């Protein structure tokens, strides 16, 4: 997630576009947000890179 934040902050457009094309990063859908709000047990790592908030779900082991 830090690599994505650095790429966004440094305007590394080729890397960010590649991640978007590969669906490695994406804006959450309304359905995803609804699921996240409905399940308060989900946990996320987050990183703010103004004006964006990056979130990565922590998968239970």
Automatic annotation (TrEMBL):
Pfam families per the UniProt record, alphabetical: DUF2288
Highest taxon of the lineage: Bacteria
InterPro entries associated with the record: DUF2288 (IPR018741)
Record-given protein name: Uncharacterized protein
Organism expressing this protein natively: Nostoc cf. commune SO-36
């Amino acid at each position: 997630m830090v690599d994505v934040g650095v790429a966004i902050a440094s305007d590394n457009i080729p890397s960010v576009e590649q991640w978007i094309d590969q669906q490695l990063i994406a804006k959450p859908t309304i359905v995803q947000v609804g699921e996240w709000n409905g399940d308060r047990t989900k946990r996320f790592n987050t990183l703010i890179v103004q004006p964006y908030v990056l979130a990565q779900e922590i998968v239970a082991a």
